[in-house]
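Figure 2 data, in text form.
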Amino acid sequence: MQSLKIEILNTKALKLIKGMQELKLIKVSEQPVTKLKVYLKKMRRNAFSAPNLDEITKIMEQVRVDRYAKK
């Protein structure tokens, strides 16, 4: 089995995908949007320069290293 991420640009394509799903040729499942991603998207709209998810992850890892190194 193989997974793909597809952006649908035309409603006719959506009808084709639903038809294939009804024929049990494919399975369609949506990825849930995390609260963090929603929050970051909202904050980026208002900010001049916002860090991306990788930069935030690096900062959080460094904070955790510093916090647990003290013990």
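Caption note: The mean pLDDT is 84.
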